[in-house]
Here is the input.
Amino acid sequence: MTSATATAEIPPPPTHYREPLHVGTLRLASRFTLAPLAGYTNLPFRLSVREQGGVGLCTTDLVNARAILEEIRKTMDLLATCPEDRPLAVQIFGSKADEMAGAARWLVDRGLADGIDINMGCPVRKVVKTGGGSSLLCDTTGATVELVRRVVEAVPVPVTVKMRLGWDDDQLTAPYFARQFETVGAAAVTIHGRTREQGFGGHVNHDGIRRVVDAVHRIPVFGNGDVRGIADAARMVDETGCSGIAIGRGALADPWIFRQLTNWVNTGDPGPRGTYQERIDFMRLHLRRLIDWRGGEKYGCVQFRKVATWYTKALRLPKRVQQQLVMLADLRQFEDLIAPFAAAGPPPGWGEWDAQQAAVPVPAGPIAHW
Ligand SMILES: Cc1cc2nc3c(=O)[nH]c(=O)nc-3n(C[C@H](O)[C@H](O)[C@H](O)COP(=O)(O)O)c2cc1C
Here is the structure.
Protein backbone atom coordinates (compact mmCIF):
# COMPACT_ATOMS: atom_id res chain seq x y z
CA MET A 1 0.00 0.00 0.00
CA THR A 2 1.49 3.36 -0.96
CA SER A 3 1.31 6.45 1.16
CA ALA A 4 -1.07 7.96 -1.41
CA THR A 5 -3.59 5.13 -1.12
CA ALA A 6 -3.22 5.15 2.64
CA THR A 7 -4.12 8.84 2.66
CA ALA A 8 -7.21 8.25 0.55
CA GLU A 9 -8.48 5.63 2.99
CA ILE A 10 -7.72 7.43 6.22
CA PRO A 11 -9.79 10.35 7.43
CA PRO A 12 -7.91 13.50 8.44
CA PRO A 13 -7.27 13.99 12.15
CA PRO A 14 -9.32 16.57 14.02
CA THR A 15 -7.78 20.01 13.51
CA HIS A 16 -7.15 20.53 17.22
CA TYR A 17 -4.65 17.68 17.03
CA ARG A 18 -2.26 20.22 15.49
CA GLU A 19 -2.38 22.33 18.62
CA PRO A 20 0.21 21.57 21.30
CA LEU A 21 -0.88 19.31 24.11
CA HIS A 22 0.11 19.99 27.69
CA VAL A 23 0.36 17.42 30.43
CA GLY A 24 0.48 19.69 33.43
CA THR A 25 3.56 21.85 32.89
CA LEU A 26 4.95 19.62 30.14
CA ARG A 27 4.36 20.75 26.59
CA LEU A 28 4.48 17.69 24.36
CA ALA A 29 5.98 17.79 20.87
CA SER A 30 3.26 15.43 19.69
CA ARG A 31 0.11 13.77 21.04
CA PHE A 32 1.57 10.29 20.66
CA THR A 33 3.33 8.66 23.56
CA LEU A 34 5.25 5.44 24.04
CA ALA A 35 3.31 3.20 26.45
CA PRO A 36 5.38 1.25 28.97
CA LEU A 37 6.21 -2.33 28.02
CA ALA A 38 8.12 -4.06 30.81
CA GLY A 39 11.27 -5.64 29.45
CA TYR A 40 11.23 -3.58 26.26
CA THR A 41 10.85 0.17 26.84
CA ASN A 42 14.24 0.59 28.44
CA LEU A 43 16.71 3.36 27.57
CA PRO A 44 18.14 1.65 24.43
CA PHE A 45 14.71 1.23 22.85
CA ARG A 46 13.43 4.65 23.90
CA LEU A 47 16.44 6.44 22.42
CA SER A 48 16.20 4.47 19.20
CA VAL A 49 12.47 5.20 18.82
CA ARG A 50 12.82 8.88 19.67
CA GLU A 51 15.40 9.25 16.91
CA GLN A 52 12.83 8.18 14.32
CA GLY A 53 10.74 11.25 15.20
CA GLY A 54 7.22 12.05 16.33
CA VAL A 55 7.28 10.84 19.95
CA GLY A 56 5.63 13.20 22.44
CA LEU A 57 6.58 11.45 25.67
CA CYS A 58 8.15 8.17 26.72
CA THR A 59 7.46 6.19 29.87
CA THR A 60 9.80 3.72 31.53
CA ASP A 61 8.86 0.12 32.31
CA LEU A 62 6.96 -0.19 35.55
CA VAL A 63 9.30 0.18 38.52
CA ASN A 64 8.64 -0.99 42.08
CA ALA A 65 8.39 2.02 44.40
CA ARG A 66 9.96 0.23 47.35
CA ALA A 67 12.84 -1.02 45.21
CA ILE A 68 13.54 2.59 44.20
CA LEU A 69 13.76 3.65 47.84
CA GLU A 70 16.00 0.68 48.60
CA GLU A 71 18.11 1.54 45.54
CA ILE A 72 18.10 -2.06 44.33
CA ARG A 73 20.70 -2.45 41.59
CA LYS A 74 18.38 -3.95 38.91
CA THR A 75 15.86 -1.20 39.57
CA MET A 76 18.51 1.46 39.14
CA ASP A 77 19.26 0.00 35.67
CA LEU A 78 15.60 0.49 34.73
CA LEU A 79 15.89 4.14 35.72
CA ALA A 80 18.83 4.80 33.40
CA THR A 81 18.21 7.89 31.27
CA CYS A 82 20.15 10.69 29.55
CA PRO A 83 19.47 14.21 28.20
CA GLU A 84 18.33 12.86 24.78
CA ASP A 85 15.75 10.70 26.56
CA ARG A 86 13.42 13.55 27.51
CA PRO A 87 10.64 14.22 28.24
CA LEU A 88 10.43 11.06 30.32
CA ALA A 89 7.85 9.80 32.78
CA VAL A 90 8.91 7.11 35.22
CA GLN A 91 6.14 4.63 35.93
CA ILE A 92 5.98 3.46 39.53
CA PHE A 93 3.86 0.76 41.12
CA GLY A 94 3.00 -0.11 44.67
CA SER A 95 0.10 0.06 47.07
CA LYS A 96 1.46 2.14 49.93
CA ALA A 97 1.00 5.88 49.60
CA ASP A 98 4.12 6.61 51.68
CA GLU A 99 6.32 4.49 49.47
CA MET A 100 4.81 5.79 46.24
CA ALA A 101 5.20 9.43 47.32
CA GLY A 102 8.72 8.75 48.61
CA ALA A 103 9.76 7.04 45.38
CA ALA A 104 8.35 9.89 43.30
CA ARG A 105 10.31 12.41 45.37
CA TRP A 106 13.45 10.30 45.14
CA LEU A 107 13.18 10.31 41.33
CA VAL A 108 12.48 14.02 40.97
CA ASP A 109 15.21 15.02 43.46
CA ARG A 110 17.72 13.21 41.24
CA GLY A 111 16.42 14.75 38.03
CA LEU A 112 15.43 11.35 36.65
CA ALA A 113 11.80 12.12 35.78
CA ASP A 114 9.89 14.92 34.06
CA GLY A 115 6.70 13.20 35.15
CA ILE A 116 5.57 10.40 37.42
CA ASP A 117 3.14 7.83 36.06
CA ILE A 118 1.27 5.60 38.49
CA ASN A 119 0.57 2.05 37.32
CA MET A 120 -3.02 0.96 37.86
CA GLY A 121 -3.28 -1.37 34.93
CA CYS A 122 -0.85 -4.17 35.54
CA PRO A 123 -2.75 -7.49 35.68
CA VAL A 124 0.26 -9.61 36.66
CA ARG A 125 -0.23 -11.67 39.81
CA LYS A 126 3.07 -10.61 41.36
CA VAL A 127 1.97 -6.95 41.21
CA VAL A 128 -1.73 -7.42 41.97
CA LYS A 129 -1.19 -9.59 45.05
CA THR A 130 0.65 -6.71 46.73
CA GLY A 131 -2.42 -4.51 46.21
CA GLY A 132 -0.75 -2.60 43.35
CA GLY A 133 -1.42 -2.44 39.59
CA SER A 134 -5.00 -3.04 38.50
CA SER A 135 -6.17 -4.14 41.96
CA LEU A 136 -6.13 -0.45 42.92
CA LEU A 137 -9.09 -0.05 40.57
CA CYS A 138 -11.21 -2.15 42.95
CA ASP A 139 -10.81 0.07 45.97
CA THR A 140 -13.47 2.76 45.88
CA THR A 141 -13.18 3.46 49.61
CA GLY A 142 -10.87 6.39 48.95
CA ALA A 143 -7.46 4.77 49.50
CA THR A 144 -6.63 4.70 45.79
CA VAL A 145 -7.53 8.34 45.30
CA GLU A 146 -5.63 9.24 48.44
CA LEU A 147 -2.56 7.45 47.07
CA VAL A 148 -2.67 9.60 43.93
CA ARG A 149 -3.16 12.76 46.00
CA ARG A 150 -0.12 11.92 48.11
CA VAL A 151 2.06 11.44 45.05
CA VAL A 152 0.77 14.68 43.48
CA GLU A 153 1.58 16.58 46.67
CA ALA A 154 5.03 15.03 46.92
CA VAL A 155 6.44 16.31 43.62
CA PRO A 156 6.45 19.47 41.49
CA VAL A 157 6.25 17.53 38.20
CA PRO A 158 3.05 16.27 36.54
CA VAL A 159 1.62 13.06 37.95
CA THR A 160 -0.36 10.82 35.60
CA VAL A 161 -2.16 7.52 36.00
CA LYS A 162 -2.26 4.61 33.59
CA MET A 163 -5.16 2.26 34.11
CA ARG A 164 -7.51 -0.25 32.59
CA LEU A 165 -11.29 0.14 32.29
CA GLY A 166 -11.71 -1.68 35.59
CA TRP A 167 -11.31 -5.11 37.10
CA ASP A 168 -14.03 -6.78 35.01
CA ASP A 169 -17.19 -5.89 33.09
CA ASP A 170 -19.14 -5.59 36.35
CA GLN A 171 -16.67 -3.12 37.81
CA LEU A 172 -15.90 -0.53 35.14
CA THR A 173 -14.50 1.95 37.61
CA ALA A 174 -12.18 3.91 35.31
CA PRO A 175 -14.53 6.88 34.62
CA TYR A 176 -15.14 7.33 38.37
CA PHE A 177 -11.44 7.15 39.17
CA ALA A 178 -10.37 9.39 36.30
CA ARG A 179 -12.66 12.13 37.62
CA GLN A 180 -11.41 11.63 41.18
CA PHE A 181 -7.78 11.66 40.10
CA GLU A 182 -8.37 14.90 38.24
CA THR A 183 -9.86 16.39 41.38
CA VAL A 184 -6.76 15.56 43.43
CA GLY A 185 -4.40 17.00 40.81
CA ALA A 186 -3.49 14.27 38.30
CA ALA A 187 -2.32 15.89 35.08
CA ALA A 188 -3.54 13.21 32.64
CA VAL A 189 -4.72 9.63 32.47
CA THR A 190 -3.92 6.91 29.99
CA ILE A 191 -6.62 4.34 29.57
CA HIS A 192 -6.05 0.89 28.11
CA GLY A 193 -9.50 -0.04 26.80
CA ARG A 194 -9.62 -3.49 28.39
CA THR A 195 -10.52 -4.80 31.83
CA ARG A 196 -8.08 -6.65 34.04
CA GLU A 197 -10.08 -9.81 33.46
CA GLN A 198 -9.64 -9.47 29.71
CA GLY A 199 -5.87 -9.49 29.99
CA PHE A 200 -4.80 -8.85 26.41
CA GLY A 201 -7.63 -10.79 24.80
CA GLY A 202 -10.70 -9.59 22.97
CA HIS A 203 -11.02 -6.12 21.53
CA VAL A 204 -10.26 -2.71 22.88
CA ASN A 205 -13.47 -1.07 24.03
CA HIS A 206 -13.55 2.39 22.49
CA ASP A 207 -16.87 3.14 24.12
CA GLY A 208 -15.27 2.45 27.50
CA ILE A 209 -12.46 4.87 26.72
CA ARG A 210 -15.00 7.49 25.64
CA ARG A 211 -16.68 7.23 29.04
CA VAL A 212 -13.40 8.13 30.66
CA VAL A 213 -12.93 11.06 28.27
CA ASP A 214 -16.44 12.25 29.15
CA ALA A 215 -15.84 11.83 32.88
CA VAL A 216 -12.97 14.32 33.19
CA HIS A 217 -13.32 18.07 32.83
CA ARG A 218 -10.06 19.36 31.44
CA ILE A 219 -7.14 16.94 31.78
CA PRO A 220 -6.05 15.03 28.69
CA VAL A 221 -7.00 11.39 28.32
CA PHE A 222 -4.68 9.19 26.25
CA GLY A 223 -6.47 6.31 24.55
CA ASN A 224 -4.51 3.07 24.47
CA GLY A 225 -4.78 -0.37 22.98
CA ASP A 226 -4.22 -2.11 19.64
CA VAL A 227 -3.11 0.95 17.66
CA ARG A 228 -0.86 -0.55 15.00
CA GLY A 229 -1.13 2.06 12.28
CA ILE A 230 -2.70 5.31 11.19
CA ALA A 231 -6.14 3.81 10.48
CA ASP A 232 -6.34 2.42 14.03
CA ALA A 233 -5.29 5.79 15.43
CA ALA A 234 -7.91 7.60 13.35
CA ARG A 235 -10.58 5.25 14.71
CA MET A 236 -9.37 5.67 18.27
CA VAL A 237 -9.53 9.47 18.03
CA ASP A 238 -12.87 9.48 16.24
CA GLU A 239 -14.64 6.98 18.49
CA THR A 240 -13.25 8.06 21.86
CA GLY A 241 -12.50 11.77 21.56
CA CYS A 242 -9.17 11.14 23.34
CA SER A 243 -6.62 13.96 23.46
CA GLY A 244 -3.72 11.72 22.51
CA ILE A 245 -2.74 8.10 22.01
CA ALA A 246 -0.33 5.86 23.88
CA ILE A 247 1.23 3.15 21.74
CA GLY A 248 2.99 0.08 23.07
CA ARG A 249 3.23 -3.03 20.91
CA GLY A 250 2.64 -1.03 17.74
CA ALA A 251 5.91 0.81 18.41
CA LEU A 252 7.84 -2.42 18.83
CA ALA A 253 6.57 -3.69 15.50
CA ASP A 254 6.88 -0.31 13.82
CA PRO A 255 9.18 2.28 15.41
CA TRP A 256 8.18 4.72 12.62
CA ILE A 257 4.57 4.81 13.73
CA PHE A 258 5.10 8.06 15.66
CA ARG A 259 6.73 9.75 12.70
CA GLN A 260 3.84 8.71 10.47
CA LEU A 261 1.20 9.78 12.98
CA THR A 262 2.82 13.18 13.34
CA ASN A 263 2.98 13.59 9.55
CA TRP A 264 -0.67 12.60 9.36
CA VAL A 265 -1.59 15.25 11.91
CA ASN A 266 0.48 17.96 10.25
CA THR A 267 -0.22 17.27 6.59
CA GLY A 268 -2.94 14.62 6.38
CA ASP A 269 -0.39 12.30 4.73
CA PRO A 270 1.42 9.77 6.92
CA GLY A 271 4.36 9.75 4.53
CA PRO A 272 6.72 6.84 4.06
CA ARG A 273 6.79 3.78 6.26
CA GLY A 274 10.04 2.44 7.66
CA THR A 275 12.05 0.88 4.83
CA TYR A 276 13.91 -2.43 4.85
CA GLN A 277 17.21 -0.61 5.24
CA GLU A 278 15.84 1.51 8.08
CA ARG A 279 14.73 -1.66 9.84
CA ILE A 280 18.19 -3.16 9.59
CA ASP A 281 19.77 0.08 10.84
CA PHE A 282 17.27 0.27 13.69
CA MET A 283 17.98 -3.30 14.76
CA ARG A 284 21.74 -2.61 14.77
CA LEU A 285 21.27 0.63 16.71
CA HIS A 286 19.09 -1.14 19.25
CA LEU A 287 21.65 -3.91 19.74
CA ARG A 288 24.55 -1.45 20.14
CA ARG A 289 22.61 0.48 22.72
CA LEU A 290 21.66 -2.67 24.61
CA ILE A 291 25.37 -3.49 24.79
CA ASP A 292 26.19 -0.01 26.14
CA TRP A 293 23.32 -0.19 28.61
CA ARG A 294 24.17 -3.67 29.91
CA GLY A 295 27.85 -2.76 30.04
CA GLY A 296 29.18 -5.45 27.72
CA GLU A 297 28.59 -7.45 24.54
CA LYS A 298 27.75 -10.64 26.38
CA TYR A 299 24.92 -9.16 28.43
CA GLY A 300 23.68 -6.84 25.68
CA CYS A 301 23.43 -9.80 23.29
CA VAL A 302 21.50 -11.83 25.84
CA GLN A 303 19.05 -8.93 26.14
CA PHE A 304 18.84 -8.68 22.36
CA ARG A 305 17.80 -12.33 22.04
CA LYS A 306 14.42 -11.34 23.45
CA VAL A 307 13.69 -9.02 20.53
CA ALA A 308 15.56 -10.91 17.81
CA THR A 309 12.54 -12.97 16.79
CA TRP A 310 10.32 -10.07 15.86
CA TYR A 311 13.14 -8.31 14.01
CA THR A 312 13.80 -11.41 11.96
CA LYS A 313 10.09 -11.86 11.25
CA ALA A 314 9.69 -8.25 10.17
CA LEU A 315 12.69 -8.57 7.86
CA ARG A 316 11.69 -12.06 6.73
CA LEU A 317 15.17 -13.39 7.48
CA PRO A 318 15.65 -17.13 7.00
CA LYS A 319 15.01 -19.47 9.92
CA ARG A 320 18.72 -20.33 10.29
CA VAL A 321 19.53 -16.63 10.77
CA GLN A 322 16.76 -16.31 13.33
CA GLN A 323 18.12 -19.35 15.20
CA GLN A 324 21.55 -17.76 15.36
CA LEU A 325 20.27 -14.34 16.36
CA VAL A 326 18.35 -15.76 19.31
CA MET A 327 21.66 -17.26 20.47
CA LEU A 328 23.70 -14.17 19.58
CA ALA A 329 27.09 -13.99 21.31
CA ASP A 330 28.71 -10.78 20.05
CA LEU A 331 28.45 -7.82 17.70
CA ARG A 332 30.83 -9.33 15.17
CA GLN A 333 28.56 -12.33 14.75
CA PHE A 334 25.61 -9.99 14.28
CA GLU A 335 27.35 -8.03 11.53
CA ASP A 336 28.43 -11.21 9.74
CA LEU A 337 24.91 -12.59 9.84
CA ILE A 338 23.23 -9.40 8.67
CA ALA A 339 25.70 -8.16 6.04
CA PRO A 340 24.37 -10.27 3.12
CA PHE A 341 20.79 -9.13 3.75
CA ALA A 342 21.75 -5.48 4.10
CA ALA A 343 23.62 -5.76 0.80
CA ALA A 344 20.83 -7.62 -1.03
CA GLY A 345 17.97 -5.39 0.15
CA PRO A 346 14.39 -6.55 0.65
CA PRO A 347 13.46 -10.05 -0.54
CA PRO A 348 10.96 -10.28 -3.41
CA GLY A 349 7.46 -9.41 -2.24
CA TRP A 350 8.63 -7.80 1.01
CA GLY A 351 6.43 -4.87 1.93
CA GLU A 352 6.73 -2.38 4.73
CA TRP A 353 3.12 -3.08 5.50
CA ASP A 354 3.85 -6.81 6.15
CA ALA A 355 6.77 -5.87 8.36
CA GLN A 356 4.60 -3.55 10.43
CA GLN A 357 2.29 -6.42 11.17
CA ALA A 358 5.06 -8.70 12.49
CA ALA A 359 3.76 -10.34 15.62
CA VAL A 360 4.94 -9.04 18.97
CA PRO A 361 4.74 -11.61 21.76
CA VAL A 362 1.96 -10.89 24.22
CA PRO A 363 1.10 -12.44 27.54
CA ALA A 364 -1.20 -15.42 27.21
CA GLY A 365 -3.80 -14.59 29.85
CA PRO A 366 -4.74 -12.04 32.44
CA ILE A 367 -2.47 -13.35 35.14
CA ALA A 368 0.29 -14.78 33.02
CA HIS A 369 3.57 -12.94 32.60
CA TRP A 370 3.59 -9.65 30.72
C1 LIG B 1 5.09 -7.13 27.19
C2 LIG B 1 4.22 -6.07 27.79
C3 LIG B 1 4.68 -5.36 28.89
C4 LIG B 1 3.89 -4.35 29.46
N1 LIG B 1 4.36 -3.64 30.53
C5 LIG B 1 3.61 -2.63 31.06
C6 LIG B 1 4.11 -1.83 32.12
O1 LIG B 1 5.24 -1.98 32.59
N2 LIG B 1 3.29 -0.85 32.61
C7 LIG B 1 2.04 -0.62 32.11
O2 LIG B 1 1.34 0.27 32.57
N3 LIG B 1 1.57 -1.36 31.09
C8 LIG B 1 2.33 -2.34 30.54
N4 LIG B 1 1.85 -3.04 29.48
C9 LIG B 1 0.58 -2.63 28.86
C10 LIG B 1 0.86 -1.65 27.72
O3 LIG B 1 1.43 -0.45 28.19
C11 LIG B 1 -0.43 -1.31 26.97
O4 LIG B 1 -1.36 -0.77 27.85
C12 LIG B 1 -1.05 -2.52 26.29
O5 LIG B 1 -0.07 -3.33 25.68
C13 LIG B 1 -2.06 -2.09 25.22
O6 LIG B 1 -1.49 -1.17 24.33
P1 LIG B 1 -0.84 -1.63 22.91
O7 LIG B 1 -1.86 -2.43 22.19
O8 LIG B 1 -0.49 -0.32 22.24
O9 LIG B 1 0.38 -2.44 23.24
C14 LIG B 1 2.61 -4.07 28.93
C15 LIG B 1 2.16 -4.80 27.82
C16 LIG B 1 2.95 -5.79 27.25
C17 LIG B 1 2.44 -6.54 26.04
